[in-house]
Predict the 3D structure of the following.
Amino acid sequence: MITGYSDHAANERTYLAWVRTGIAVIAFGFVIEKFNLFMLTVAGAALGRALPPGQLAHLSGQFGRYDGLALVLGGAVLVVLATARFVRTARLLDDPKAHEAKSVRTELILCAWLVVVVASYSLYLAFA
């Protein structure tokens, strides 16, 4: 039997929750990117003609070109950081020495980043 099984199980559950969140952020980035392409296509079809690339770029706006990509990359970074945290915590659980509690700085930074991205995209949608 694994010593400290409940601690390892809790570490794995936390890891899987962070991975699930990262995958959701990546999927949301893909949805936003495809939605931008869809809206540009609809705008071109509504005018009854193909729009030139310069006008398509103007319609999507400055933020519209990079928002989906930022979410996809941010989700990938989230998964990488979650993996590093999982491995570090698993090693600390297996170490027989007592360790002092680490700060939750990484989790706070990631949560703050998600809040900023969602808020900025909400403002973009509200005022665009």
